[in-house]
Structures are given as structure tokens and as C-alpha cells.
Amino acid sequence: KRKNMFGSKSNQNDPNKNAALGGQGALNSIVNGTNIDGTINAENDIRIDGNMKGILNCKGKVIIGPKGQIDGEIRAQNAVIEGVFKGVLHIDDLLQIKESAHVEGEINTDKLSVSPGAKFNVVSKMSQQTQM
């Protein structure tokens, strides 16, 4: 048997290790000054503080920070927009538009929250609610 030279202590229950490996609670971050042109597929939440042109597919929450700008299409479970978005949004659950946001295009969502002061010029489709 070979012994691990760093000790045999297991890190399987270390939450920081799980986050670093893309486990529950992990957050992808595109920082201010980063420009992306293309497609991003994210299994976990993602925060955009840079610029992106293209398609963003996220199984969790998308956060566009106050300095973030996206021109394209987003598909996600939830989204919070504080920066600029132009394009088509497909949000399965809750879309939050904060007061600093500027949103143009088409949105498809189940629930929508728009803060006073937001620039919001969209065509909106909300999911059909079943009536009692």
C-alpha cells in the first residue's frame, strides 16, 4: 500500500473543496474588464460583471452586476439584472430587474419583479397560470 505523502486525511466533507470542484453553492464569475464572445454553459450560478455577446445557458441563477453587459440570449432558472441586457431572456422562475438595470428585448418568465427607476423596454410573455 502506498501512503499519500500529504497525509491520509480525507477532504470529502470540506465544503470549500466541493465548491471548487463545481459542487452545490459554486459560483462562476466573469469579472469587470473581461469580454466574452460565444456560448457559456453553466451548471451552477454565474455572475457577469464584464461584457458578453452570445448565448448563456445556466441551470441556476444568472446575476448581471451593475457593470455587467450582455447582448444575446439567456436561458436560466432565475436571474437578477443590475446592469445592461439586450436580447432574449428565458427565465423558468423569477426574473428580478433592479433600479440600476437597463433591459431591452424580449422576456419570457414565470415571475417578474421590476424595481422603480429601472429602464425596461421589452415585449413580455409570462407563463400561463392555472385558474381555480
Can you characterise this structure?
The protein has 132 residues and is mainly beta. 5% of the residues lie in helices and 57% in strands. The chain has one helix spanning 15-20; strands spanning 27-30, 35-42, 45-48, 51-58, 61-64, 69-76, 78-81, 84-97, 102-114, 119-126. Strands 1, 2, 3, 4, 5, 6, 7, 8, 9 and 10 form a ten-stranded parallel sheet that branches. The longest helix is centred in the N-terminal third of the chain and has 6 residues, at 15-20. It starts with 14 loop residues before the first helix and ends in a 6-residue tail after the last strand. The model is unreliable at 8-20 (pLDDT under 50).
What is the fold's blueprint, element by element?
Elements: H1 15-20, E1 27-30, E2 35-42, E3 45-48, E4 51-58, E5 61-64, E6 69-76, E7 78-81, E8 84-97, E9 102-114, E10 119-126
Parallel strand pairs: 1-3, 2-4, 3-5, 4-6, 5-7, 6-8, 7-8, 8-9, 9-10
What fraction strand? over 45%
Low-confidence stretches: 8-20
Radius of gyration: 18 Å
Task: Give the end-to-end Cα distance, rounded to a whole number of Å.
Answer: 66 Å
Let me know the average pLDDT.
86
Order of helices and strands: HEEEEEEEEEE
The computed structural class is mainly beta
The major sheet is characterized as: 10 strands, parallel
What is the molecular shape? Answer: globular
Number of strands: 10
Percent helix, as a range, is: under 10%
Number of helices: 1
Quick description:
With 132 residues, this protein is mainly beta. Helices cover 5% and strands 57% of the residues. The protein contains 1 helix and 10 strands, in the order αββββββββββ.
